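Each letter names a residue; structure tokens follow underneath. Both lines appear below:
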Amino acid sequence: MRPDARPDEAAATARRASRYATISTESRIMQAVWNGQVIAESEDVVSVEGNAYFPRSALREEVLVPSAHTSVCPWKGTARYLSLDVGGKRNENAAWYYDAPKPAAAEIRDRVAFWKGVQVKP
């Protein structure tokens, strides 16, 4: 959405996003595992488009490495990435988060999701 969009355009964007996204929560303990190590663990996980978003507080901060990489989702906003450094191995841009998600994605504020070989499982 354009930065100069009118409020009615913002509402229309949010409605379109809700057609494409399924947002749900998990009530069981979920883990994110990479290189044999648990990276995150929580029972407060939000699932969006098949991706499990863990609360930032559930992550092992000592294995996270900030990245300059970003990407843009039309309904969630700008994603920022983190690399993982576990057991002497690096997994570049294996986690992402939206520090200022658009209103349609407010549920994932302060949450992090994984990919690139990170297993998310109960």
